[in-house]
Amino acid sequence: MRIEKANTDDHQILTKITKKSKVFWGYSEEQMAQWNDTLTITKEYIKTNFAFKLIKENQVIGYYSYFNTEKTIIKLDNLFILPQYIGKGFGNYLMDDFLIRIKENRDIKKIILDADPNAEKFYQKFGFETIGQLETSIKNRFLPVMELKFIKPL
User: Fold this and answer.
1) Which architecture characterizes domain 2-149 according to CATH?
2) Mean pLDDT in order along the chain per 10 residues (154 residues)
């Protein structure tokens, strides 16, 4: 098992993983159709952001992506695993890799993300705190807005 930088040729597999993972949480076909553009990972997205794929037995089974919103703030934009691997520690493996990678940059002071409501507890395990809510296109559904602050030693 390994994690490596995604390349533009990975856009279709990353899109497939994103959509299959969302379906796993019970979203309707109608909702998935509304989110089609949002859940599509393009070649341009991979070129302009940081994206890393998880490979198990020569198959891409998950990924994460992020970007800088400011010099000191990172936004974790995506973290998805194929449904058959959810709940088996692969999300933790991706998150650990992401946090190690980010902590190597001494300038980063915090990570922010908009979590799927089903993933809020997952991010809390890593120290993220819910600091707000973002209204979605689904009535009475809100995304937890979360952050993880880094306290740097003097």
Assistant:
1) 3-Layer(aba) Sandwich (3.40)
2) 97 96 88 89 97 97 96 95 95 96 88 92 95 79 88 54
